[in-house]
Amino acid sequence: PPIVKQYAELALRIGTLVSTIAPGRIKDVEVQYRGSIAEMAVEPVTLGFAIGLLQRHFDMPLNMVNVAVLGKERGISIDETKNTEAKDVAASFSAKVITDKVTRTVTGSVFGGTLPRIIEIDGFNVEMTPQGPVLVIYNDDRPGVIGSVGTICGRHNINICTMGVGQKPAEQKAILAVSLDKEPDAKAIEELGKLDFVNEIYVCKLD
């Protein structure tokens, strides 16, 4: 069905995002399907995710045929679970990757059958369109964050297309997921990284 193709594309981009925000050696990978997508044949979706996650480790282009074999050679297998009970949205795809440094979880959904969205990163409810260059910033939750990030981007002639903000007030932590019109250069990243509220910063190309 066309919706499986949409989820395969979304999963590929989630895989690419996770490969950027989850540094270190991959130890464990889980994907979960919830809601209506869990009733479908989802192998292309899991393989799409694997391509996004593993591509940066290989010089050759990965595809639906070779990715499972090459992943196994690296000792990486993907545990898949399905739950037809929906949570928050009618259907969703979620990936959890554990490396020797971090644990990352990213969830996405396709709205209206055609609009792919990332809806959660590491327990932060944050909506983001997974396309183009994306800036992901883990930061302390306090006033002035959005303004400071916007100012630096503006200074480097980088246009902000969309910005998603997720907060965990109890922990005073937040996340910014910013899609940009062009990839920030090293100087812009350095300036952003020096902001005292920034804990981690990642740039990812999602197209």
Large-scale geometry: globular
As residue ranges, the low-confidence spans are: none
Widest beta sheet: strand line-up: 2-1-3-4-5-6
CATH architecture of the largest domain: 2-Layer Sandwich
How large a portion of the residues is in β-strands, by DSSP E?
35-45%
Strand elements, count:
10
CATH fold descriptor of the largest domain? 60s Ribosomal Protein L30, Chain: A
Percent helix range:
25-40%
What is Rg? 17 Å
Mean pLDDT: 96
Order of helices and strands: HEHHEEEEEEHEEHE
Q: What structural category do the secondary elements indicate?
A: alpha+beta
The oligomeric state is single chain
> Which class of the largest domain in CATH terms?
Alpha Beta
| Through-space gap between termini | 23 Å
Count of helical stretches: 5
Largest sheet: 6 strands, mixed
Number of domains: 2
CATH superfamily of the largest domain: D-3-phosphoglycerate dehydrogenase, domain 3
Protein name: ACT domain-containing protein
Domain ACT: 134-207
InterPro entries: ACT-like_dom_sf (IPR045865), ACT_dom (IPR002912), ASB_dom_sf (IPR029009), PGDH_ASB_dom (IPR045626)
Pfam families: ACT, PGDH_inter
